[in-house]
Amino acid sequence: MNTDRDTTPWGEILKDGMIGAWPICLGYLAIGLAFGVIAQKAGLSPLEIGFMSVLVYAGSAQFIAVSMLSAGAGFVPIVLTTFTVNLRHLLMSSSLSASLRNLGTGPLSLFAYGVTDESFALNSAKFRENRWDWRRALVLNHTANLAWIVCTVAGGFGGEFIPAGALGIDYALIAMFICLLIFQIREMLYVVVATIAGLLAVVLSLLIPGNSYIVIASVIAAALGVVFKRGRFFSRAEGPS
User: Fold this and answer.
1) What does pTM read for this prediction?
2) What mean pLDDT, rounded, does the chain reach?
3) In this structure, what DSSP letter does residue 162 have?
4) pLDDT tens digits, residue range 167-183?
């Protein structure tokens, strides 16, 4: 990490981080409202929705938890299911750790709280540009966090007036993930790995109950991507030189 960046005034850091977060905030406008509406239909009050967004702050896990609440699921199944779904954060955190080696426990804890699929995608891309540091990334994370909380609470208040499936808001989360994937594609290898992960996830979803197939497919596809990138598979096919 470049130490010269530590001398940058916090005003500039805040500006860069907030500007960097605007694509996420724009997406959360639709997704957060959608979640708030669905949560309100499940019987949660705006205050409860706000607390859930603060304490959990994981869009897919919150959608799943609310759906399970609506179906009458108990506390333990909900916790185990959301924990399994969020295991992918281990992969994201491992990837980001390379850019946060010298970060202390306090800032690292604050940063870890704000890691989501969206912030991971944007911060990873910006860290690769070598014009980004942990302070800007931290501001990006928590700007997006604030936007998520505000939008979910707003959806809770508006749930009485907005039908759950109105304007395709139930598709917003899927649409954001597709956009994030497209922005991450830099070469054909990324297309191959994404295709393998998608196909594996579909096949494994038919064989494995629950949502663990998402993590399994991601790990297998990522491992194959490393093998392809290093050329091990092809070098074996060529034989000894």
Assistant:
1) 0.69
2) 81
3) S
4) 565 566 566 567 656 76
pLDDT exceeds 80 at position 210: no
Domain identity same for 102 and 142? yes
- For residue 50, pLDDT beyond 90: yes
Q: Provide the sign of the torsion angle of the four alpha carbons 97, 102, 105, 110, taken in this order.
A: negative
Q: Which of 153, 156, 90, 98 is nearest to 123 (CA)?
A: 98
Identify whether residues 189 and 175 lie together within a single domain.
no
| Residue linked to tokens 């239909």 | 41
Burial track 41-63 (b if 16+ CB lie within 10 A, e otherwise): bbebebeebbebbeeebbbbbbb
Number of H helices, E strands in the chain: 12, 0
Q: Domain range for residue 8?
A: 3-184
151 and 58, same domain (yes or no): yes
